[in-house]
Amino acid sequence: MCVIDKIQGRELKIVDTTLRDGEQTAGVVFANSEKIMIAEMLSDLGVNQLEVGIPTMGGDEKEAIKQIVKRNLDSSIMAWNRAVVSDVQQSIDCGVDAVAISISVSDIHIQNKLRTSREWVLEQMVKTTEYAKKNGLYVSVNGEDASRADDDFLIEFIECAKEAGADRFRFCDTVGVMDPFTIRKKIEKIYKATNFDIEMHTHNDFGMATANAIGGVLGGANYVGVTVNGLGERAGNAALEEVLMSLIHVLKYESKIDTRKFVELSEYVSKASGREMPAWKAIVGSNMFRHESGIHADGALKNPKNYEAFDPAEVGLERQIVIGKHSGKAAVVNKFKEFDIDISDEDANLVLEEIRRTSVRLKRSLFDKEIASIYKDILAERKKK
Q1: Nearest to residue 76, comparing CAs of 99, 101, 98, 92?
Q2: What sign for the dihedral angle of Cα 360, 362, 364, 368?
Q3: Which of 108, 283, 285, 308 has the most beta carbons within 10 angstroms of its beta carbon?
Q4: Are strands 198-202 and 168-173 parallel, antiparallel or unpaired?
Q5: For the chain, what are the domain ranges?
Q6: How confident is the model over 64-92, as pLDDT tens digits?
Q7: Residue 273: other Cβ atoms inside 10 A
Q8: Contact 272, 30 (CB under 8 A)
Q9: HSE on the CB side for 370, CA within 13 Å?
Q10: CB-based contacts of 331: which residues, under 8 Å, 6+ apart?
Q11: How far apart are CA 324 and CA 219, in angstroms?
Q12: Which CATH architecture describes the domain 3-273?
């Protein structure tokens, strides 16, 4: 079966955890007002569920969560909890409609972190899930370090969660060690055995978070956990903007997310987190639709589809033809059309030669005024002769 056919007709749900896992990035702290703004922006995009924080932290964390709940956003509001009843009680106090109940499921974690047994893990998860369900909450049971867990134990864990009333299972590639091919097979096996809703939660330690999230979807997962700009622990999480645009353009999925607001959201989160967004960032970076290389600029001018995977307006960007060392004559001619100047081929070649020299000297592309000045100098030199 074609990979595109694997998601046709399916409804995928987006779960954004920028305000929880994203804020767990070392050194990142959102002000309460910023958390509220980010939640509102994500809801306006059409994100299905927002994981907004950890109520058991108390103080400002609880207050921010309560304020987000009071906004009555269109998105479901989820709080993160350990598999501890008192954590869930704190979440209930905040008024959220959903909780994530997280516990380690790999033997590595069970033995070396929790220092307990698989049986204890199942007991804690079931007890906490049953309590949450009795209080009317939607429950995602999170398998921390699921990618390194025994498949048979994962299946047992999910079956116990189902019996306790859980609504879905979050498959966590906690240390980002999976590859998209293996994770697809793993999710296929788990989904076939349990027929239970699965959410992908992938980390980027080997640069494969987005690919692994997509791999999981192809394996049968119907929820995808993401963060804006891929913010998150260590190397981060699967990026909201990358996952969505990959689903839409690579796998031809019809999404209701308003992608036109991606750049505005990414820039806001970048400033709020104090993490500068690289110009080369996939989907929303400022270089995504900047063309300088002569061959690329010429191709983009003739038909943007030659060198652009999608229309820049889809994410809130604009196309730019940059003039610098690698530019070609076509880009120069086009630039002067913007100046309402019909430059000759001879003059375009002279201008281009000087542009390249100047760009090397300054170690950057040139501003419009600098380009115009070069042309003015060439005309002045000609008059002298």
Answers
A1: 98
A2: negative
A3: 283
A4: parallel
A5: 3-273, 290-384
A6: 999 999 999 999 999 999 999 999 999 99
A7: 23
A8: yes
A9: 15
A10: 291, 292, 294, 297, 298, 301, 321, 323
A11: 45
A12: Alpha-Beta Barrel (3.20)
